[in-house]
């Protein structure tokens, strides 16, 4: 997670320091057994393939989870006045949407399933946002993947792959919630055991197990996830969770870190009143 401040930059534009995206490779399938030790082999293959195609160079010394304020300081710190909304092109992709698709205000989150501060946001702040803004049709919530491989090498990227495979069967949000609810359990697993755990989640949620396993082992969403990483980095995301609030007409305000509900409430109320 980044240091918990609302971004004060006056322009959000693609970073000139980011390398150019890789040319898609023609062979990236990772077919393998779907049970037992094969799941571990598939996980290792997925991670290896991701490292081969990802060009995001994230510096662990930046303001990620380990360098962020303690939970107490996050909750007691007075939020700074956010800058005016910034126009951002291409912020909305084909990612999962929660709420009214025609809502006038959008919250886009870039998140990592293994990030503890992302988990806290989803357990404490997001339910209030959903209750007061999303469920009432005023705001829609969009999730984009930002797995930080350098900090969470064993599970963050496979978790993102698993959630994409659940989305194929219309169960993204159920699987998304399951990953955050069980984070403390699966993040301790060895790499070779994580695949079986994620496949067990699919069975528990009632997904078609064979379809999920084939999807998970194939690595078919490597480009999709890497695209989210590329976009997030170009928009100025340097840690998780990171948010953009607004719409294409008025622009978006960037919010960094697991901010308290009041920060989101103030921004949303101002935008909805304008």
Topology:
Blueprint (H helix, E strand, L loop, with lengths): L36 H17 L17 H6 L20 E2 L6 E7 L4 H19 L4 E7 L10 H13 L3 H10 L1 H4 L4 H14 L4 H10 L3 H14 L6 E6 L3 E6 L4 H13 L1
Parallel strand pairs: 2-3
Antiparallel strand pairs: 1-3, 2-4, 4-5
Helix pairs in contact: 1-7, 3-10, 4-5, 4-7, 4-8, 7-8
Helix content: 40-55%
Second-tier CATH architecture: 3-Layer(aba) Sandwich
What percent strand? Answer: 5-15%
Radius of gyration: 18 Å
Sheet having the most strands: 5 strands, mixed
Strand arrangement, largest sheet?
A: 1-3-2-4-5
> How many discrete domains?
1
Unreliable parts = 1-41, 50-81
Number of helical runs? 10
Mean of all residue-level pLDDT scores: 77
The count of β-strands is: 5
- State the CATH superfamily name: Glutaredoxin
CATH class: Alpha Beta
Structural class: alpha+beta
- End-to-end C-alpha gap: 30 Å
SSE pattern: HHEEHEHHHHHHEEH
CATH topology: Glutaredoxin
What global shape is seen? globular
What do you see in this structure?
This protein has 274 residues and is an alpha+beta fold. The chain has 10 helices and 5 strands, in the order ααββαβααααααββα. It has one domain: Glutaredoxin (3-Layer(aba) Sandwich), CATH 3.40.30. The longest helix has 19 residues, at 116-134. The model is unreliable at 1-41 and 50-81 (pLDDT under 50).
How would you describe this structure in keywords?
274 residues, Glutaredoxin, 5-stranded mixed beta sheet, 10 helices, 44% helix, globular, disordered N terminus
